Amino acid sequence: MKSTRFLAWLAIAVGAIYFIVPLIGTFEFSLRMRRGEYSFDAYHSVFSDIQFRSTFGFSMLMALFTIIFGMLLVVPTAYWVRLRLPKLRPVIEFITLLPLVIPAIVIVFGYLRLYNSSSFLPLTNSTSGTNMLLVFSYMTLSLPYMYRAVDTAMRMIDVATLTEAAESLGAKWPTIMFRCIFPNVMSGVLSGAFITFAIVMGEFTMAALLNRPAFGPYLQLVGANKAYEPSALAIIAFAITWLSMGLLQLVSRFQKTAPVKA
Amino acid sequence: MSFLSLSHIQKSFGQVQVVRDFNMEIEKGEFVSFLGPSGCGKTTVLRMIAGFETPSGGTITVAGKNQSGLKPNQRNIGMVFQAYALFPNMSVFDNVAFGLKVAGRSKDEIDSRVKEMLSLIKLEHLAERFPYQLSGGQQQRVALARALAPKPQVLLLDEPLSALDAKIRVSLREEIRMIQQQLGITTVFVTHDQEEALSISDRIVVMNAGSADQIGAPAEIYNRPATRFVASFVGTLNLIEAKVTDPVANRISIGDQGVTLREPLGPVKAGDTVSLALRPEAGSIAEGAKGDTALAGEVVSSNFLGSVVRTRMRVGASVISFDMFNNPGLVPPAVGETVTLRFTASDLLIIRD
C-alpha cells in the first residue's frame, strides 16, 4: 500500500520535473541579462522594443478578427447541422479536422497558389487583402477547436426544442439565433475564442510565408539574433496561453445555465 | 364549424406512412387528448398542428383559417414540450415575457401579463430565478405560463408530464386542467398515459398505427371500447374467446358455461368464435353479489395490489381477472379454489375486430 503511494508520488514528481524544470530554467535564464545579478532587463528590453509592440498588436488584431469571423462561420454552421442536417455531421466533423492533418505549410502554399497576384482573386496584391488571407488561414487552423467547442456547447442545450419553443412563441430566425441560441452557447464560443487567441499569438508558418508582421515571426527573429530576450518572450508567450486557459476555466465556471434536457 | 379542424391528414416520412387519413373536429375551449403507444403518430399530428411538420395531405384549419403554408411563428399556437425547453439564459420572468416581447407589446403590458401568468401558476416569488434553479414541476409550470402569455388560439401539450415524478404528475395535470378551464383555451394534449388522458380530457382520441381507432368521452372510451386495440390499451381488460351457440337468442358459451348476451351478436352463425371483453372491476365473487350472469372457475392466482386484490380464475380456455376492493377483513380466495363470478350481462362487450 505504502509502496503504491510512493510510486504514485514519484510519477507525479517525474512529470512535474519534466514540465516545470525547463520552464524554471528558461525563466531563470531570462533574468540573467545583467551580469552577476538577477534582473528583468530582458523583459524591459522586450517591452521597450517597438517591433514587439507592433507585432503583438498586429497579432492581437488578427486574433480578434479571426474570432469574430470564425464565430460567424462556425456557430450558424454547427447550429444548422444540428438542427436540419444531422446526417452531414460526420462530413462536417471530418472537414473541421483536416487542418490537424494537413500541415500549415501545405495550406499556405495552397492559398498562395489560389490567391496570388495573377489569380482570379488576387488577395496578395494588397496589404489588406493579405491580412484578410491571414485571417482566413487562422480561421482554418482554429477550426478543429472552435467547431468542437461550439458543437459541444450546443449538445448541452437541446437546440432543436429550444428553436421550436421560440418559433411557437412567434420568434423569427435572427431573434432565435441571437437571443435564444447564441447566449446559451456562449461558454463554447468563448472557449473557442481563447483557444483561437492562443493559436494566433504563437503561429509562425502562415504569417511568415504571407510576409505579415505578426508575433510568431518576431519570436523567431528575436530567437535567432538575441540571447536573453527569447527566453523572456517564451515566458511571456506562456503567460498569454495560461491567461487564455485561465479565462476559459473562469468562463465555464461562471456559466449560469445548466443542461435543460429532462 | 368547429374551431380546430383536421381533415384527411396524412404524413409520410420517406416510404413510412405515420399518419393515415386522420380526421378530427375540436370545439373551442375543448380539452382533447391524443392517447396511444409510442410511434402511433400522435406527436406527429400535434407537430403538424404547430407547423413543425408539413402534412403530406389534408388540411388543418384554426378558427376557419387554413394553416397550410403558415410557419410556426405565424400560427399563434402555444406549445409546451416534454423537455420543458425553457431558455436557460433567461430568468423565469424573461422566459414568460419572451413571446410578448417578440410580438412587440409595450413594457407595461408585458409586466402586467407576465405577473398575471406567474400568479396563475403560483410562481410569482420565483420570477427572478433561472431555469436551472427550479424543480422539474416548476420548470414545466413556467413553460405553460410562457406558452399562454401571448394568448394563443390553441394550446398544444406534448407529453408535458412524462419527465416528472408520479406525485408531481398528478398534481400538475390537475393544475393544467384547472388553468385550461379557467382560460377556456382549446387544448390538445398528447400522452401515452391512459390515466392522465382519462382524468383530464373532455374527449380522447385513441390512436393506433397512424389513425384514430376511437374518438369519444373518457367514460365512453373506457366503458365501450370500439376496437380490440382500444379495449386492450385503455385500462385492464379481460379478453375472452367464446363460441356462439344460438345467434338468434344471443347465446354463447365460455368453456362449457352458457351466457346470454344483451348486445346483439350480429351476423354470426352457431359454432363461430367471438371475442368478448370484461373489465376486472365489473364482477364480484362476494356472497349476495348482484348480477344476472355467473361464471364459475378455478382460482389460478391472487395478487395484492394495495387498494385492490386482483384474482385470476380459469374458465374454459380463458383466464379472467377480477378485482376486489381491499379491506382489513378481506380473505382472498386460495389458489385452486372454485369461485363464482357474478356480473351484469351488459358488462360483457363484443369486440368486433
What does this structure look like?
The complex is a heterodimer of chains A (262) and B (353). Chain A is mostly helical. Chain A has one domain (50-254): MetI-like fold (Orthogonal Bundle). In chain A, 78% of the residues lie in helices and 0% in strands. Chain A has helices at 2-30, 41-48, 50-83, 89-101, 104-115, 127-156, 159-168, 173-181, 186-202, 205-209, 215-225, 229-254. The longest helix of chain A is centred in the N-terminal third of the chain and has 34 residues, at 50-83. Chain A is globular, with a radius of gyration of 22 Å. Mean pLDDT of chain A is 88; it is low at 258-262. In chain B, the strands form 4 sheets. A 6-stranded mixed beta sheet of chain B has the order 6-7-8-3-9-10, with helices on both faces. In chain B, strands 13-12-11-14-19 form a 5-stranded antiparallel beta sheet. In chain B, strands 2-1-4-5 form a 4-stranded antiparallel beta sheet, covered by helices on one side. Chain B has 2 domains: 4-233, Rossmann fold (3-Layer(aba) Sandwich); 238-351, RNA polymerase II/Efflux pump adaptor protein, barrel-sandwich hybrid domain (OB fold (Dihydrolipoamide Acetyltransferase, E2P), Beta Barrel), CATH 2.40.50. In chain B, a hairpin with a 2-residue loop joins strand 16 and strand 17 (318-325). With 353 residues, chain B is of the alpha+beta class. Chain B has 8 helices and 19 strands. The radius of gyration of chain B is 25 Å and the shape is elongated. Chain A binds chain B through residues 157-158, 161-162, 164-172, 175, 179-180, 183-184, 186, 256-258, 260-262, and chain B through 50-52, 71-79, 81-89, 98-99, 102-103, 130-132, 136, 139, 143, 146-147, 150, 156, 162-163. Chain B: One of its GO terms (cellular component) is ATP-binding cassette (ABC) transporter complex. Chain B: Keywords: ATP-binding, Nucleotide-binding, Transport. Chain B: This is Putative spermidine/putrescine transport system ATP-binding protein. Chain B: GO terms for molecular function: ATP binding; ATP hydrolysis activity; transmembrane transporter activity. Chain B: It holds the Pfam family ABC_tran.
